[in-house]
Specification:
With about 140 residues, the protein is an alpha/beta fold. It has 5 helices and 5 strands, in the order ββαβαβαβαα.
């Protein structure tokens, strides 16, 4: 299930390589994978999704978040947000939660108010509590 954080930023659970071309048809211009390989048996490999993104001509960022959101993760999410200007960004992980939280912190670092970030996360169905100290 894809959830909108705003008109240009979306998050979802795991995507499969065969779904990537369809994302381009819906305006996705950048994909961010926040899920480390091997987190769950049978999940698609990052390299396979990256190959599908290359075939669909969509820039792909692999930013696995394993133990909380660190400064390097936020910086990579900011780069992806800037690259998606004029298009749409889709970030994914197992459920979409890590991606939403990382994007929330990145948006805050880019100048969005804590209230704006809180509102966009809650409207998309996420609890911003775990990152409240970063906002």
């Amino acid at each position: 299930m894809i959830r909108q954080l705003d008109d240009k930023v979306m998050v979802s659970g795991q995507i499969a390589p065969h779904e990537v071309a369809g994302l381009a048809d819906h305006g996705v211009t950048v994909i961010v994978n926040n899920r480390p390989d091997g987190e769950e048996p049978g999940q698609p490999l990052a390299a396979d999704i990256e190959a599908a993104a290359a075939e669909a001509n969509i820039p792909y960022h692999y930013v696995p978040i394993i133990r909380g959101i660190g400064p390097a993760d936020v910086e990579e999410m900011q780069k992806a947000l800037r690259q998606a200007e004029g298009g749409k960004l889709l970030a994914f992980c197992r459920s979409g939660t890590r991606s939403a939280m990382a994007l929330g912190v990145a948006k805050r670092e880019e100048g969005a108010s804590a209230e704006e970030v809180h509102q966009c996360l809650t409207q998309a169905g996420f609890d911003p509590g775990p990152i409240a100290h970063l906002l």
